[in-house]
Amino acid sequence: MVSERSLNRLRELIQRIVEAETDDFFELAKIAGLNPSKDFSTANLSGLDLRSAQLKGANFIATDLSQANLVNANLAEANLINANLIGAKLINATLDSASLVSADMMGVSLVNATLLSANLTGANLTKANLSHADLRRAVLVGCKLDGAILYLASLNHVDLRRSSLTTANFRSANLYGTNLSYADLRGADLTDANLAGATFEKALLGDNQGLTKEVIADLQQRGAIVDH
């Protein structure tokens, strides 16, 4: 049975949150007696409105953020390992140096987002929209990007080794210096993509839009395998 003392504490807490003159997620968490760097791990925050929230360095390990509104949110250096971000809106979000290892980001919108030096090893980005996103020097080893949209994305020096990129849209994307060794690019649209300096060792091509015979021959010289 809940004691009267506990109920009074709960009422006081609710009142403080209601009267708080802030919509800052971290400030509200502190009012509630929570530690933002520790207490959101494994929490269910699905569908939460966190637009423009200041979440730098937050701990969201295995947190459910599916369908959350994170437009313009600052998640730089945040820990999102194994987080559920299915269908989340991360338009214009900042994820520089964030850890998204094995995160489920299927169908996520990362339009205009920045993920400089972020670690997305093993993440699921199937059918994600990364148009105009800046992923320079990010690590996406073993990622699933099948059917993803990367139109005009900055992928300079990104590590995409062993990633699945089938039917992905790389139109006008900058892949300068990108490592695509052992990646599966069959059916990907590479129209007007910058492939200068990219590594294609054992990368699998086939049925690709935007590649002339001359370009395909060059990629084969770099180690690409064409699936006929």
Structural key phrases:
228 residues, little secondary structure, two-stranded parallel ribbon, 3 helices, 2 strands, 14% helix, 2% strand
Largest sheet, in brief, is: 2 strands, parallel
Query: H/E series, N to C?
Result: HHEHE
Query: What is the arithmetic mean of pLDDT?
Result: 91
- Number of separate strands: 2
Q: Strand content of the residues, in percent? A: under 5%
Total count of helical runs of at least 4 residues: 3
Radius of gyration: 21 Å
Strand order of the largest sheet: 1-2
Task: List segments where confidence is low: pLDDT < 50 over at least 5 consecutive residues.
Answer: none
State the distance separating the first and last CA atoms.
Answer: 70 Å
Structural class by helix and strand composition: little secondary structure
How much helicity do the residues have?
10-25%
Rough outline: elongated
- What oligomeric state is this? single chain
Kindly describe this structure.
With 228 residues, this protein is largely without helices or strands. The chain has a domain at 1-34. The chain has helices spanning 4-19, 25-31, 213-221; strands at 204-205, 225-226. Strands 1-2 form a two-stranded parallel ribbon. The radius of gyration is 21 Å and the shape is elongated.
